[in-house]
Amino acid sequence: MNDREAMQRALELALRGTGHVSPNPRVGCVITRDGQLIAEGWHARYGGPHAEAAALAAAAQAGEPVAGATLYSTLEPCNHQGKRGPCTQAIIAAGIGRVVVGAIDKNPIVDGVGVQVLRDAGIEVETGVLRAECEWQLRAYQHFAATGRPYIIAKAAQSLDGSIAAANGQSKWISGEESRTRAHRLRREVDAVLVGATTVKKDDPELTVRMVEGPSPRRVVLDTNMDSSLRAKLFVGPDRFKTFLFTSESQASGVKANALSVSGIKIKSAPATSGDRLDLENVLEQLAAEGIASILVEGGAQVLSSFLAQDLVDELHLFVAPMALGEGKGTFAGLGAPRMENAPRMHFHSVGRSGEDLHIIALRGPRRAATELNS
């Protein structure tokens, strides 16, 4: 097992923490001696042992000595006291001879310190093995750690001519089964799914993970004027305690808001901006305080357009079906950019097939090295 093979295994292990560790990162760890795997571990749950500690414990349980062995971690080992002790000190105490790191932790309290501590202890450290793959897997955590704002993924399924629904409002189903399965994988990856009041009224969604295995995320509804029905599935189902409803400050203490609050819905207020829309920056700040590090925006045209217009979309997944609707509802109909220079711009990360559909992934900001989507 060479360095790349060992790191690839660590990436596979990290995925086992999906849906269970946020806002902590998903991290995998492998320990080898003379190229032979002797132990492995991953961060399995929030507050639980970190991947490095889990791998060291697995080696001890198996009776495998690790002195002089090589430890691979998808993310730089921490050197601070949190819910658990510093991983660097556990690595040093175990006598590990070499550490290979995929990505440097962008959390300001780590950010290279862990690597330096290990080197100061006389341990050989190599960084950047499968860096692009590790950064992609860790992108939501890294963004949240560096900025304090949740990583925003927007998703839409549209026709060839850019419509998310027919003229009569029908939208089921524009995309094929494979695309819908991928959308559920995205739900499994994030901490919360966000929609607007119009989507709640028209589609009455549950926003659960159904087509793949995994925990369902929390749900967020933007409803400035409290137009949603009290009987919507999001508000009456067993997962209603995982639902946040954001409304205007004037509606937050109204009769409907109080009724939903009594039933277990978390009512939040946010200032309303021009066009009677909620201040998205304020909404995201409040969700970050709740420990929500990543959000999938599945709202309709108005919600999607609002996030794009304010340059809040970090990653866009567009599923394009081979059909044309003509007078349909435009995917970004609410954007209204008057001139080319006002149009939000992203860059293509990847374009591929999803069953009969196209799956386009676009990213904001500077162009980065493209990698395959982990799925």
Describe this structure in words.
With 375 residues, the protein is an alpha/beta fold. It has twelve helices and 18 strands. Helix 3 packs parallel to helix 4.
The geometry reads as elongated
Chain-averaged pLDDT: 90
Measured as a percent range, the helix fraction is 25-40%
User: Which parts are unreliable, with pLDDT below 50 for 5 consecutive residues or more?
Assistant: 368-375
The count of β-strands is 18
Q: What sequence of helices (H) and strands (E) makes up the elements?
A: HEEHEHEHEHHEEHEHEHEHEEEHEHEEEE
Structural class of the helices, strands and pairings?
alpha/beta
Radius of gyration: 23 Å
Q: Span from first to last CA?
A: 24 Å
User: Which sheet architecture does the biggest sheet show?
Assistant: 9 strands, mixed
Question: Helical stretch count?
Answer: 12
How much of the sequence is in beta strands? Answer: 15-25%
Q: Could you give the order of strands across the largest sheet?
A: 11-10-9-8-14-6-15-18-17
Task: Write a brief caption for the model.
With 375 residues, the protein is α/β, with parallel strands linked by helices. The chain has helices at 3-14, 51-61, 87-94, 113-120, 131-137, 139-147, 177-189, 197-203, 233-236, 255-263, 280-289, 301-309; strands at residues 28-33, 36-42, 70-75, 98-103, 124-127, 151-158, 163-165, 192-196, 218-222, 243-248, 266-270, 272-273, 277-278, 294-297, 315-320, 329-330, 347-354, 357-363. Helices cover 29% and strands 25% of the residues.
